[in-house]
Structures are given as structure tokens and as C-alpha cells.
User: Which sequence fits this backbone?
């Protein structure tokens, strides 16, 4: 975040601070604002002068003092909570992680939150915002082979549940025609502390590889940049999207 700008804004009375939010700013609800990737998405969106509502089960943990940021309590798997939280938003980001009983894929938060969002979106009809859900890299294909089919994890382990939970979430969205969805998967491993280069490539279902035929991965900050770019200039509504170098 631009610290100089932030400091200046904080020194202003609240009405003046609100006045600097551009008229074309989007209202973006970010589930997972406290998380490793979600926190980078919050910073990226605020730096680009959007209004951000960070959702957490413990909103007091979101210590972000910025005029266009607010923290609210919410549960991405709860219908009534989600309906209330996303009302009036332009875009919702689901950057969440959670396991359920026995680590079964269908119990993961990614699966359950996608189903919750779909049900809420249908209830809201035309007023529903778009959703961008963070997906798993192993749900992408390499030369037509699904990454998940090359892995040998046992059912009941956390990672098995997590990666197949991402797969189920993707299928939930693909089975809808009314929901404005995008699932974004990284092409290769994340580089958590990598820089924001602002230069990345996008694709759909196939892993993006470099000149050496390897998936180059993506930094958390460039994934955040790609997500806010997609919100500002939509290219992938109703589709899966991958981001990589
Ligand atoms: N990190 C990676 O290398 C990687 C790789 C591939 C895919 N992904 C996917 O990217 C997404 C984000 O990953 P991450 O590493 O940033 O996750 P993370 O740091 O573990 O953060 C998970 C977030 O989920 C939120 N959360 C948990 N239960 C919730 C609920 N019931 N309602 C609302 N929010 C809830 C938590 O918020 P509170 O605790 O504040 O409620 C937390 O901010 C996940 O889907 C993950 O599988 C990550």
C-alpha cells in the first residue's frame, strides 16, 4: 500500500477521506482477508482505490486503518451471513481454506462456500455480484492430463481433501449458467514473498509453461494484481482462468 497516501488520508476528517474514493471504484468483498493470499488482494485493491470489505470470523484481527476499508464478521459457508455481507458489492473474492470432518473433499470450505455463493447468487438474481474464487493448481491440465490424476494422495488426508475440494468447487460453478463466476488457479507453485512485477500471463484450463517447458509459478502479489485487473476489465466471467509467468 502507498504509505504516504494512506497517512495523508488518515489525517483528514472522515467526510473528506470518503470524498477521495473515485466514483468508478468497485466495492469488493474479500473473504480470507486475513490469509496469506487474501491479505495481498486487500492491499492491491486498496492501492487501486477500490472500496474493500474484508470478511473474517474474527474481524477485529483485521487491523487495516484505511478510509475505504471496513472489516465485517462473516462465514463463507453460511447462507444468511453471505447474503447480508455481499449485498451491494460489485465483486466477491473467496480466498478461503478450511477442512471438514475426515478431510473429505465435499466437506472442505472451498466446496461448501462455492455452493453457498451459488445459492445466494440465485436468490439475489440480477443484483448478485460476480465472484472470483481462488482455485487449486492441480485442477489444471498439462497436455490434456488433469494434474489431480497424476497425484496419489490417500482419501482422509488434508491435502487430498483440499485439492479435490477445489475440483468440486470448480464443477459446482461450471454447472451454473446464471452465476457470474471465475475460478483462478496458479500455473505452478506460489512464490509467497515474490515481488509484484505486474507482468504475468493468463490462460484457461492448461498450465502455462515457460520456454523450458516448466510452470513458472506466480507470486502472491502478482496473483493479487491479476485478480484486481480481472475485476477492472472482465475477461473471464463464467470461466476458469490461470495466471503464471
Ligand atoms: N497458499 C498456497 O500455496 C496455495 C496454493 C494453491 C491454492 N491455494 C488456495 O488459495 C486459497 C487461499 O490460500 P491461503 O494460503 O491464502 O489461505 P490461508 O492463509 O490459510 O487463509 C485462509 C483464510 O480462510 C478464512 N476462512 C476460514 N474459514 C472461514 C469461514 N468459515 N468463512 C470465511 N472465511 C474463512 C480465514 O479467515 P479468518 O480466519 O480470518 O476467518 C483465512 O483468512 C485457498 O483456497 C487455497 O487452497 C493456496
Assistant:
Amino acid at each position: 500500500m502507498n504509505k504516504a497516501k494512506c497517512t495523508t488520508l488518515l489525517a483528514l476528517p472522515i467526510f473528506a477521506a470518503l470524498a477521495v474514493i473515485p466514483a468508478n471504484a468497485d466495492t469488493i468483498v474479500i473473504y480470507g482477508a486475513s490469509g496469506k493470499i487474501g491479505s495481498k488482494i486487500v492491499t492491491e485493491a486498496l492501492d487501486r482505490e477500490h472500496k474493500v470489505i474484508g470478511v473474517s470470523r474474527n474481524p477485529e484481527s483485521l487491523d487495516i486503518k484505511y478510509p475505504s476499508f471496513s472489516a465485517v464478521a462473516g462465514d463463507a459457508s453460511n447462507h444468511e451471513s453471505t447474503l447480508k455481507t455481499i449485498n451491494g458489492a460489485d465483486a466477491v473474492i473467496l480466498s478461503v481454506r478450511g477442512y471438514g470432518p475426515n478431510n473429505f473433499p465435499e466437506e472442505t470450505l472451498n466446496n461448501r462456500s462455492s455452493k453457498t455463493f451459488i445459492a445466494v447468487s440465485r436468490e439475489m438474481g440480477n443484483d448478485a455480484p460476480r465472484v472470483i474464487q481462488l482455485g487449486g493448481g492441480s485442477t489444471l491440465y498439462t497436455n490434456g492430463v488433469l494434474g489431480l490424476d497424476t497425484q496419489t494422495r490417500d482419501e482422509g488426508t488434508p491435502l487430498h481433501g483440499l485439492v479435490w475440494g477445489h475440483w468440486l468447487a470448480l464443477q459446482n460453478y461450471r454447472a451454473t449458467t446464471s452465476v457470474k463466476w471465475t475460478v483462478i488457479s496458479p500455473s505452478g507453485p506460489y512464490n509467497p514473498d515474490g515481488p509484484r512485477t505486474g507482468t504475468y500471463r493468463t490462460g484457461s484450463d492448461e498450465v502455462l509453461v515457460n520456454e523450458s517447458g516448466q510452470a513458472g509459478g506466480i507470486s502472491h502479489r502478482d496473483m493479487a494484481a491479476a485478480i484486481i485487473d480481472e475485476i477492472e476489465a472482465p475477461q473471464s466471467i463464467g470461466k476458469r482462468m490461470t495466471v503464471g509467468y
The mean pLDDT is 92.
